[in-house]
Structure formats: structure tokens, C-alpha cells
Batch of 2 targets.
Target 1
Amino acid sequence: MLVDFRNEPLTDFRDPENRRRMREALDQVRRSFGRDYPLRMDGRDRITGDWISSFDPSRPGVVIGRVAAATREAAEEAVRGALRAFESWSRVRPEERARYLFKAAALMRRRRLELAAWLCFEVGKTWAEADADVAEAIDFLEFYGREMIRLAGPQPLTRIQGEDNELEYLPLGVGVVISPWNFPLAILTGMTVSAVVAGNAVVVKPASASPVIAAHFVRLMEEAGIPPGVIQYVPGRGGEIGDFLVSHPQVRFISFTGSRDIGVRIFELAAKVRPGQKWLKRVIAEMGGKDAIIVDSDADLDEAAAGIVTSAFGFAGQKCSACSRVIALADVYEPLLERVAGLAESLKVAPADDEEASYGPVVDRAAYDKVLQYIEVGKREGKLVTGGEPAGGEGFFIRPTIFRDVPSEARIAQEEIFGPVVAFLRAENFDEAIRIANDTEYGLTGGVYSRNRAHLERARRDFHVGNLYFNRKITGALVGVHPFGGFRMSGTDSKAGGRDYLLLLTQAKVVSERF
Ligand code: NAP
């Protein structure tokens, strides 16, 4: 008998024993740098002669590991292997499939800090951010396992006399999982195991900036007993094998999390029916955001400033949910800005494995250059308050950056920067604040700090985002508690970690029998 789902507690790093264990995990992982990770297909290693090196963004000279880069031939074999595995896996009872996830959650719990240490080094997460990433991965395993058991039970139908009617959720087939680097364990785990527990087989293509943690995840799933071929680990450059996998006529669905532009490309490619294709492909796309926090005239400004700084600069602003616009009512604009700037300037930007780092580097050279270019754009579009330059050191460190007096149509108020940069916009009244908040093509997260009940109700109705938070930070959605996903160009309106999610990965069959 299973206990009800509960979120995995976070590790308390104020406890000296936990700090000692984390340092030990970091040392252990450092000793494992430089290994090669082949593709894993049909339960076997495969190398291709081409490698992707994964660097520590805090020290770009350090290679933490190399993964084999899949060619198109390898990708084709991976799809074929997954099709074979699907034949038997789709017939495994849902409760049995769920148990593989519960076993994997137990293994992850045992390796919790080691996995967190890999995240510190591979993508530059601080201890707390890395620990939360692993906790979320465990949550996805526990949550989707229970969800599949629930969906496998009798489903509510209107019953009629003289007929037996049953509705059953069946898997779709072979899917391609294309994951981002910013939650390289949590999101990868959620996307993969939701598909697999529903009875599908998947070809997993992790982001090229975070393929090593993905290799550890796939091995852990194998250790949990997942049969060969059900999860095919096929890292490779998106531009080289991405289009091929998405267009493949025997792929039934694509589960993608990443940027708007790649999401749009996948959506378009997947819509084209190829020779031999017997279905319309399903695309689940979770994309970017341009998330705003509104601060009302009567808000608690200390709370608002703390929430803004955590939401904007946590993990160097590299969260789809990160606050990148602050819309402050005119009468609190100056005192709020002063508080936010003060807190931002007190942040310590340092290598992610430094236990005192507030945040670490951005993920790679391309991200670093892109964020610095946006900062130059910001200097023309608004007034720089603080930051606006690299934070020094050998890694890709950028100081917390705030621009003021930014118009809503400015690029830095419209485009996703994905770095530690926040734009302050002024609103004369609450209606205008809501209008500005909705004035982007995205609709992922948003927040309001206010004590005005009527304004909160107004925002509840009119602030058009998938995840809206009142009087708290806008990052850190919890599985099951805050099902997560956005509107408009933020994605296909799905809710990861929610009760509707597995329906995206299944198809319902109804059997009606008269006796
Ligand atoms: P990205 O550049 O779009 O990459 C995402 C994935 O797509 C990577 O695995 C990438 O592979 C792959 N890819 C690239 N080109 C492709 C192609 N032509 N066909 C198929 N796949 C291709 O995004 P990212 O930089 O990894 O992640 C950051 C973005 O994700 C941000 O926009 C963020 O807002 C968004 N995000 C959204 C959510 C959400 O829940 N809505 C959650 C997290 C992140 P390579 O790495 O090999 O290029």
C-alpha cells in the first residue's frame, strides 16, 4: 500500500553534517571528471567517434565528461529499438510500470547529494538550487507513478442498463524527449518518466550543455530495472539530429522543453505528415517566459524586494519562471527600486560549488555573450541602476543587473534574456500594471504583491499566465502543489506535475459490450 504523495523535503544546508556530506559529494564527483559516456541503446553502450564535451561553467577549462554524439544512423537505430521495446513495455501492467519509478526514486534519494554535486559542476547550480533540482526529480517519479495507478483504475462514465462500458488509457507509441539544460535532472526526469509510466518508449535527447547528468539518470533508470530499449539515451546536437527525430514517421509524439524558437520549429516540423506515417503527431511544448511581478501601492516593500531578488537572480535568472520585469506602481517605484538594488548588490556571484555563492555562472559562452549583448541593448533602452558587466573570475559570471525606466515595448521588456537582468517598468495605476504585464507574447508565470483584495481579484481574473503567485516569489513550483506550464508562446498549455499531464501521453479507448 502506497502512502499519499508528499513533496521531497529539501536538504537543510545550515546543518553542519549536511554541509560536510555535500563537500564530500563534491570531492567524490570531482574525482570522476573526465570520463566518457557512450550512447545507451537497447541496454548497450554505443560510441560514434564524435564526442560532446561538457564543461564546468564556473571553470570553463575543466571538462567534467564527454558523451558520444549521436549520428542520424544512431538516431534511426534508437527509434527502431524503441519501437521493439514498445511492443512488450506497452503490455506491462500500469501498476508494475509505476514500481520502476518508485524504485528509481529510492535510488535517487540514496544518491541525492552526489547527483546535486554533478549539477553544481555541469550547469553551475548552487548547493540549494542543485538539491532542489534533485528533489523535484524524485517528486516527478513519485507523483507520476501514483498518477498512472489512478488512471489505470475504473474511470467515471455514465452507466446504462444492459451494457458494460469501460474506458482505458493506452500508451501512444514511441516518443522523443528533448530537454533543456536549466533543470537538467528534474525536467529530464519528469518528461521521460511521465511518458514511460504511461507505457510509451522514448528516445531521449538531452541538451548539449548537460548530457552527463542525463547519462547518470539513464543509468539509474536501468539500475531500477527499466527494460532495454524503453529509454534510449541519444545525446547529440539539436541542429544535427533534432529535425531528424522530430520528422521521423514512426515517432508518435514529441515532448519538448526549451526556447520559444526551437519549440515553434518543432511544432511546424511535426505537423507535416510524412510517407508511411499513420497518425498526427502530438507535440507537448513547454517554452520560454517574460515573467513580471507587479508591486502595488500598498504592498509590503521589504517582502516584495526579497521576492523579486530571489525570483530574478536565483540560478542567475536562468529559469523559465524567473522574474525579468518588475512593474511598480508610481508611488512605490523609487523606494522599491532602492530596496531591490540594495539586495542585488549584496549577492555573492561565485563558483557554484562555493557554499556561500548566491548564484554562479551562466551556463556557457554563448549564454554569456547573449546576456552581455542584451545588457548593451538595455543601456540604450533604459537607465542602468546596478550591474551591467561581468562579475570577474574565469567563469561565465555576470553581475546582477537592473535597468529602470524601461518602456514596455523595449526589447529587454519583451524578449527572454535568460540571465541575471531585470527591467523596472512604471505604471500609473493597477489597470495599467495589468495591461503592461500582459503585453508580451508569453504567459508563463507572474506575481502580484498587494494588500488590496479588489486588485488581487482583478489580477486573478485578468493577469493571463499559467502560474500566478500572490505575495510570494514566482519561482520554485512544487510538483502536485503548483502544476506548471504557461499560455500563449510559453507552451502548449500543459501542466507538468499536475493531474492532467499523463493524459497528454495516453489515448483513451472505450470498450462497450452487450451481454
Ligand atoms: P533550447 O536552446 O531551445 O534547447 C532545448 C533543447 O532543444 C535542447 O536539447 C536542444 O539541443 C534542442 N534543440 C536545439 N535545436 C533543435 C532542433 N532543431 N530540433 C530539435 N531539438 C533541438 O533551450 P535551452 O537553452 O536548453 O533551455 C532554455 C529555454 O527553455 C528557455 O527559453 C526557458 O524559458 C525554457 N524552459 C521552459 C520551461 C517551461 O516549463 N516552460 C522549463 C525550463 C526551460 P542542443 O542543446 O543540442 O542545442
Target 2
Amino acid sequence: MKCRIDKTKCNIFLDLGKMPVANGFLNNKKNQNEYFYKLQCAFNKKLSLFQIVQFPNPKKMFNKNYPFYTSSSKFMIKHFKNFSKFIKKKYLKKNSIVLEVGSNDGTFLKNFNKKNSIGFEPSESVHKVALKEGLKSYNKFFNLKNVSKLKKYHGRVDLIFGANVFCHIPNQVDLIKSIDRMLSKEGTIIFEEPYLGSMYKKVSYDQIYDEHIYMFSLTSINKIYEKFGFELIDASHQVTHGGSMRYIIKRKSVSTKTRNLLKLINEEKKKEVDKFSACLKFKKRVIHSKKKLREKIKKILENKNKICGYGATSKSTTILNFCNINKSMIDCIFDTTNDKIGKLTPGTHIPIIDHKFFKRSGYKHVFLFAWNHKKEILKKENNKKIQWFSHLN
Ligand code: TYD
């Protein structure tokens, strides 16, 4: 298989089987023509880049009904608020222009001057919420074709930001060229994405789904951006989305790599995150994790206990379909998202129920699919009788 970025060879090493669109929640009536693709992972040794092989057309994923609202998590609201304060202090001047790629419902952009901030959001459902907030949100993909039309911003944007979105974009060359067109000379690119090293450490293979086309690392980002006249200058670990990395990039010669970055790259190399050998180790651990999880569920059910899920995440689609877990094993999944409630999970057709019924449902065995929001969820839903579990423990 040829890699999309530099056309060198990619090694396919892991097959997670037939997979539906991760956020393709189904209405009860219309579950006949479900779309499936083959979820396989590959590694490009030259770029040290982890990627999936096949994925649906992004228009199938980011459309009128995209159901993920950043503001559904109080933690994320706070995270972006704190981060925007830091950005203003360190990277922006009074009238600096800020652009967000994949601005969702505006949770991040809301923290900036509305006149000087713009967002690109292809999914209409979430874009509409941003518009209501009075934000300048373009209901479009961030690509060369679309940014070419916005001449007044060319070379004038001081910060280009993305959170959990750069890894969604199949054509990274077009993405970087679009950034190049918009960014000012001394401008900064900052993005935070699920981190390959964290996925390996936790064996959180549920991070692999159609939207996450790439799973980046410091080494891969360094190698990719260098090709286009940019330089990774700093980075930091983030707890968001179960373990992310924040990358800070500038045009070459505008700044130099920080000591902190060199230390992080060193740590990454020690763990061989940049090597194919780590992929093979990960594969073994994924297969073992599936076996352990199926045994655990079987044991709970054999003891005549019932199981429900909590958090109908995109990640849950990978776990449920890869581990062949269906509604005879998990009765339902509780969730807070209006657009998901009353629907069925993709591929496995488990009903999604309003979280407000969780407390009185009396389930004692709960699969926490939204494990990345554990603190927030347990704070409001926990009681001593509940045994929370996931594929991670
Ligand atoms: P998340 O893990 O953030 O994303 P992804 O879909 O990328 O895997 O999804 C969080 C889901 O969990 C979302 O459907 C809302 C739900 N949720 C709750 O039901 N209760 C909560 O308290 C929180 C924080 C999220």
C-alpha cells in the first residue's frame, strides 16, 4: 500500500475487521443500508506514520447530522478556556487573527474576539450552534479550494488551531498548503491530537476508527512538516481524549526547537514509538485485550447479571464491532447527547438511552465507553454498588 503523504510503501499489520461509520448512529427504522468498510492499520516507516488503510469519504462522516458536540463535556470547555488564555499571553498580539480548523460548536473560538476569529466546520449540526453564538463559522472543509476564496485572510492569520481534527484530514499535503496560504510570517500552528505513544501504552485501540485516519507522534509530525518549510518547535502531553499531544509549529528559521521538545523526542525514541517493531507489539496486545474483554463479559452474564454501557462514543464502535459484542450482551448505552438518544449503535444496534434514566436503571455492571471522561462521569453517576469496567482494565 502507498502512503498518501509521500507515496512510499506502508506496511499493513493489523486488521480490525468490517466496520461501520463510527458516528453513524441509526434511526430505529432506517438500519437497512448500513455502510461498512475494512478497518486495517498500516505504518509508513519513512515517515514513522501510523495510519488506517481504508476509510469512508469524509462527507459521509462530517455532514448535516454529525453528533459530536465539544461542549458536551464541561472538562473540554474548561480545557479550551485555560488554553486560550495561555495562547493569548504567549503567541498573540491585540488584533491577531485566529483561525480554527474543525471549530465544531465554537467551544474554543468563543474565548477570542469574535471580529478576529474564524472557524471552518463542515458539519452543519455543530456549525449552526457556533453561528447562534455569533461566531464567524464557515460551513466548509478547510482546504486549498475553500481558503483560496478568502483572499483577505491570506498570510494574515497569526494562529491556526485544531483540536482532534488534523488527524481526520486524509490529504495532509493540501492541509499544510492551506495553512501556508493563510498563516502570517511569524504565525503559529498549534494542534492537539490523540497521541500514538499513549495509545500504545494504554492499548486503547478504540482510538482507531474512520475519523482518525492518522495517529501522529512527535517523530512523524517533525518529518512531515519539515518537508513543507515548517518546524516543530515545542510539544506537550495532554490528558484530553485519553492521551493527546499538543504540537507547536512555526515557519523554519522563525524559532528553534525547545529543550522540552528534544527531551520528549528522546523519550519517544527510547520507547520505539517511531519504529515498526512497536506496531507489532501493539498488535499482540490488542488481540489479547479482545480475548480478555470477551471473557470478562461472558463471566458477568453467566452469573446472571445484566450489563449496560455509558457513553456512546465513536470509540465504542471499534470495540463493539471488533470484539463482536452485541445487544444480547449489552442491553443499552446511556448518553447525554440529544442527537444520539433514541438511536442505535452503528453495526451492533444497541439502543442509546437518555442518561437521566441511568441512576434509576439499577445496572451494577457498566461498560464505560467514555473512559476518557471517567472523572466527570463518575462524579455524577457513581454509587458503591456499580462496577465500572472497560477494555482497558
Ligand atoms: P468522546 O469520548 O468525547 O468522543 P469520541 O466520540 O470522540 O470517542 O464522546 C463522549 C461521549 O460520551 C458523548 O457521546 C457524550 C457522552 N458523555 C456522557 O454521556 N456523559 C458525560 O458526562 C460526558 C462527559 C460525555
